[in-house]
Amino acid sequence: MASIYLHIPFCKRLCGYCDFYRSVKLRYIPEVVEAMHAELAAQRDFLHDHTIHTIYFGGGTPSLLAPSEIERFVEQVRSQLDCSQLEEVTIEINPDDITPEYIAELRKTSVNRISIGVQSLDDRCLQFMGRRHSAQQAIEAVRMLQEAGYDNISVDVIFGIPNFGVTELVNTLEGVLAMNVQHISAYHLTIEENTRFGRMMAKGEFTEIDECSSESHFMWVHRALTNAGYEHYEVSNYARKGFRSKHNSSYWRNVEYLGIGPGAHSYNGEVRRWCEQPIEEYIKGVEYGSEVLSQRDKLNEYVMTSLRCVEGFSLDKVERDFGISERKRLEQEAIKTGVAELLINDNGNLRIAPENMLLSDLVIEALIEL
Fold first, then answer.
1. pTM value?
2. How would you classify the pairing of strands 349-352 and 343-346?
3. Which of 117, 203, 229, 285 is deepest in the core (most CB within 10 A)?
4. Which is it for strands 313-314 and 349-352: parallel, antiparallel or unpaired?
């Protein structure tokens, strides 16, 4: 099984927190789309004989493309690769791009899962982050999608935002829960250097929230969503039963994937590859950076991605794939660094309790070997 990721690197406006590869040069959309089709055709053998089970349109803002363009990519994947077990086709959408006409056209495509970037239901907070939509637009967008028959909708929420406290967060959570969607991704705001927030912080104009507030916000999210019946199955992801993100789950299970477009990454089990060209260069021809993964890299990635998920990682698998010495090292490091108290051992399966997942980076850093 394998996955396809298509990165649509265009936005009408750059949000203050986002460091994904993106551009506001919308005039290049037609040329980049054609270059992506060419790249997809050229890279059809990257996944060898794998069967494709998910396709994901991310960005950027994939909803800047007409639904017919989205379906054209899906049809190309179907024509080039084995899609006999294709289960999930997801598109990320901005609330203000959703109109009845857009939805009507989207319903004619293969898209069966929507990921909508709500982020907050506080208008002041949305303006602060640089979002284009209002809280009411987000609510209305979800309603329109549901009325059109979409029954696999994920909503994105951001918490841990400076100058916006528990009151705003609780109001957002209550509003999102009232939407009755199948999946919620709740991300703690992180400040990246190459963003507006990062530049503001470098000038002393912006400060991240303190650790105590960060933990408080995380627990408000965790309790609100789990009490409402959502499973906290990954650090930032919550789902109704049967509605985990199949595409993102494949990343955490080390499934191979092909990424298409400037800013996309690919992985085939041995090699990790990426394209970071400016769009003006990408349309002239694709160039990749790459690295061959060592056994150490593979073990580190297995531990790191597994500990982000509620199932954790198997010591038996570590021993089988990497040797008994690595199993013993992990067990000893857990005790020596003090993170063992954050780990639950279920018959040789080490995992972090969902309510402690905010500390997953601490545990991961203690266990991986550079």
1. 0.95
2. antiparallel
3. 117
4. antiparallel
